[in-house]
Amino acid sequence: MKYVVIYGSRDIRVEDVAVPTIGPEDVLIKVKACGICGSDIHRYVGDRFGRRLAPYPLNSGHEYGGIVTRVGKNVKRIKVDDRVTLGLNWVRDGMGAFAEYLRIPNADERPIRKVPEEISFNEAAQIEPLIVALNGFWGVKPAVTDRVLILGAGPIGLCLLQRCRSEGIEDVIVSEISPRRLDVARQLGAIGIDAAKEDVEERVHALTDGEGVDVTFECAGAVPTTKQAVSLTRRRGRIMLIAHYSKRTEIDPEEIVSKNLVVYGYGSYAENAFEEAIRLILEDKIQLKPLISHEFPLESAKEAFEVALQPAISVKVLVKPTV
Ligand SMILES: [Zn+2]
After folding, report:
1. Cα(179) to centroid(ligand 1), Å
2. How far, in Å, from the CA of 40 to the mean position of ligand 1?
3. Which of 36, 51, 72, 184 has a 20 to 30 Å separation from 291 between CA atoms?
4. What is the pTM of this model?
């Protein structure tokens, strides 16, 4: 089968390897789609965040949708032909869904989940990042009347936007430098700010009568947006940091103190996040199709990663190992 290996910074190769054999506790999954996550890009580039994870060489793929083709004799929860997602510990294992087949060991102990027929494999591959967004949402619990600012319209920011809108929140401001991503945000109901051309501070002040927003989601992981999160959130407002930071940023702790801000780091705040993700997709409250900007076959993994590296032209890039 074909299998992707990242050997080092921007060194990615597609190799021919044996289809994994499975033990009595394992399952084998035919991978239909695997998304390139921000964390995969950090690894591909080899920046500060990327390097502190599992060492090279590694595969990295964890946002997958696939179909079970073989099941070990002791496995109880999963059956052949189940459509599945989740269950990979990418931080620790650096394993393995950028491949035609994926072996998941000790399948019953891992949070592999079955996906209903109505949800496509392309959508299934985005359930993991959607769950990240749902966790961020429940960490802050924005109220219907809150004004929300989302900094960065990558897949997480776009899922958060839709989750806030589905809650009935009217004013969701999204600031983004990529015209392509900003377009998608506007289509999904955001008040868009083109951070490449407009003065973000001025626009947010104008939109909030000079008060600032109640809730900010920092989804860009960049130095200027982290500062904006602190400066554009109103007194007693809440900030959720929901990105990975490859550069250190300088924020003024005195500003957090004097404004009585609450700053959350990303964590698993949502209960039943998987069930909520499935429900939101089935009820059309979260659309994942508009987030897919590119699809590549597995052989073009290098090109796929290079495109994913350019937020100006891409949103979610999917690798499609099998048809
Ligand atoms: Zn991910």
Report:
1. 23
2. 8
3. 51
4. 0.95
